[in-house]
Amino acid sequence: MGETQKTPHKKLYLQVYDDICKYIASNNLKPGDHLPTEMEMCQKLGVSRTILREAIKSLEITGVIRSRPGIGIIIQSFSTDRFFSCLIDSMYISGDDHLEDDVEQMRKVIELGFSAQAFDTLSQEDISKIESILNDMKHAAEVQIRSKSKIFGLSFAEADARFHQTIFSKIPNKLVLSIINFFWAYDRKFKIKQPSSRHLRITLDKHEKIYNALMEHDKKMFMEAMEYHYSYDYKEKS
Amino acid sequence: MGETQKTPHKKLYLQVYDDICKYIASNNLKPGDHLPTEMEMCQKLGVSRTILREAIKSLEITGVIRSRPGIGIIIQSFSTDRFFSCLIDSMYISGDDHLEDDVEQMRKVIELGFSAQAFDTLSQEDISKIESILNDMKHAAEVQIRSKSKIFGLSFAEADARFHQTIFSKIPNKLVLSIINFFWAYDRKFKIKQPSSRHLRITLDKHEKIYNALMEHDKKMFMEAMEYHYSYDYKEKS
DNA sequence: AAATATTTGTCCGTATGTATC
DNA sequence: TGATACATACGGACAAATATT
C-alpha cells in the first residue's frame, strides 16, 4: 500500500505534498485535469483527511491546484502570480528595508537587459497604447500637483506601471513579464510615500523620452532613454 | 469577537492566512518570535483548528513560519529559498519545455547585469576559491570524458554552479544570490541530458577565461569573458 | 424544476508525540 | 521522574456548493 514511509520525522503533510506533486508529474496531468477525490487520496496514501487537506491547501496557495466544492481538485495552468503574491506577503512581514533597494536594483537590471528585445517586439499598436498611457500619466501628475497634498498618487503610479508592463508585454518570455508584474505589485504594497512635484516632473520627462524614441523607431535612442530612466540622481523612483 | 467576515465566499483559510500576516506585521513580530498557540488563535479568529492549520501550513510551506510540537509557531527570517523550491515544484509539474529557455535567458541577463558589481566585490580569497572550483571542474570533466558514458555528470554541473555562486556571493543584494541559487536548483531538477565531450571542453574554456580575468584583476577582460560565457553558438548550456 | 448524489468546506473530540521545566 | 504545554494526527459529523438525473 501507499504507506508514506516514516523517514526521520519529515512532517506528514510535506510527504503528502511531494506525493501529490509526483502523482501529477508521473500521470502527466495537464491544466484542467482532476486529481482523485480527497477520500480516494486519503485511502491511497493512508493518511487522514486533515493531513491531506494541509497538503492540498499548501498546493493551492501557490497556485498549483484549485479545489472547489462539488467539483473536485483541478490542476491550474502554470503561473508565477501566486508565488509572487506569497513572496510579497513574506517581504511585507519581514519589514526589511534593505529589500527595497535590492528589488529596485534587480528591476533595473532586468528591464535594461530586456530593453533591446522589447524594442524589437513592439508594434505600432503597442506604441499607440503607450502614448495613451503617457497621457494618463501627464493628467494624473497635473491633478496631483494642483491638489498639492497627501492625495494618494495611485493613478500616476498605476499608469507608470502600465507603461512599463506594456513595453515588455510582447516579449516571448513569461518569466520577464511576471517578474515585472511582481515589481509593480511590490511597489503598490510598499511605496506609500508621496513623490514631490519635482520628482513627478522628472519622471514624466523620462517617460516622454522613452516614448519619443519609440515614435521615431530609434533603437539607440530608446536604449539611452531607458538608461536615463534608471539613472537616479539619488534614490529617485520608477 | 474577531469573527472573520463573510465576504463573498473567500475561503476561510485564506482569510485566516491574511489575518495572520497582518497580525505579524502590525505587532511587529521578528524572526524567532512566537505566534500565539493554535488554540488561542482559533478562539481569537473564531475558526476551527482544521482551518487554522490549513492557513498555518500554507505559511509554513513558503517559509514564513515554522511550527514545532512542544514549542509553538515561530517566525522565520525572510528567505526566498522556500518560494523558489515551490516554484520549481510547480515548473516540474507544468512540464512546460518553453520555460527552460525563459529561465536561461533570464539567468543570462541577471548575471551579466550584475557582473560589474560582482567584480568589484571579489577579494583575493574569493578568487582563490574560484580557482579551486575551476580545478574541480577540470577534474570532473576528465573523469566524465574518460568514462565516456551515461555517468551522471553531477559533479561537473555542481562545480559549475558553485563557480557562478561564488562570483556573485559578495554582492550586497540578497535577491541576486537567491535567484542564482534558484537557477541552479532548476538546472539540477531539469537538465538531465548528458553534455557532450566537446561541450564540456568549451564550457571549461569559458570558465577558464573568466578565472584568468579575475587573476589579472582586469575588469574589461572579465566582462568580455562573462559575455563570451553566455554566447551560445546555439543552445549551449552554462 | 426538483430531487439526489458527489465533493469540498467546516467543526469537533480524542489520542499521541515532543519539548520544557 | 513526572507534570505541563504544545503541535501532530486521526476519525466522525454536518453544511454548502455543484453536477446529474
What would you note in describing this structure?
By secondary structure, chain A is mainly alpha-helical. Chain A folds into 2 domains: 12-75, Winged helix-like DNA-binding domain superfamily/Winged helix DNA-binding domain (Arc Repressor Mutant, subunit A), CATH 1.10.10; 97-231, GntR ligand-binding domain-like (Four Helix Bundle (Hemerythrin (Met), subunit A), Up-down Bundle). In chain A, 66% of the residues lie in helices and 3% in strands. A two-stranded antiparallel ribbon of chain A has the order 1-2. In chain A, a hairpin with a 3-residue loop joins strand 1 (65-68) and strand 2 (72-75). In chain A, helix 1 (12-26) packs across helix 3 (49-61), helix 6 (124-146) runs antiparallel to helix 7 and helix 7 (154-167) packs antiparallel against helix 8. The longest helix of chain A is centred in the middle third of the chain and has 24 residues, at 98-121. Chain A starts with 11 loop residues before the first helix and ends in a 9-residue tail after the last helix. The model of chain A is unreliable at 1-8 and 234-238 (pLDDT under 50). At the A-B interface, helix 1, helix 3, helix 4, helix 5 and helix 8 of A face helix 1, helix 3, helix 4, helix 5 and helix 8 of B. Chain B binds a DNA duplex (21 and 21 nucleotides) through residues 9, 11-13, 37-39, 47-51, 53, 56, 67-73. Chains A, B: It holds the Pfam family GntR. Chains A, B: InterPro entries: GntR_C, TF_FadR/GntR_C, Tscrpt_reg_HTH_GntR, WH-like_DNA-bd_sf, WH_DNA-bd_sf. Chains A, B: Residues 10-78 form the HTH gntR-type domain. Chains A, B: Keywords: DNA-binding, Transcription, Transcription regulation. Chains A, B: GO terms for molecular function: DNA binding; DNA-binding transcription factor activity.
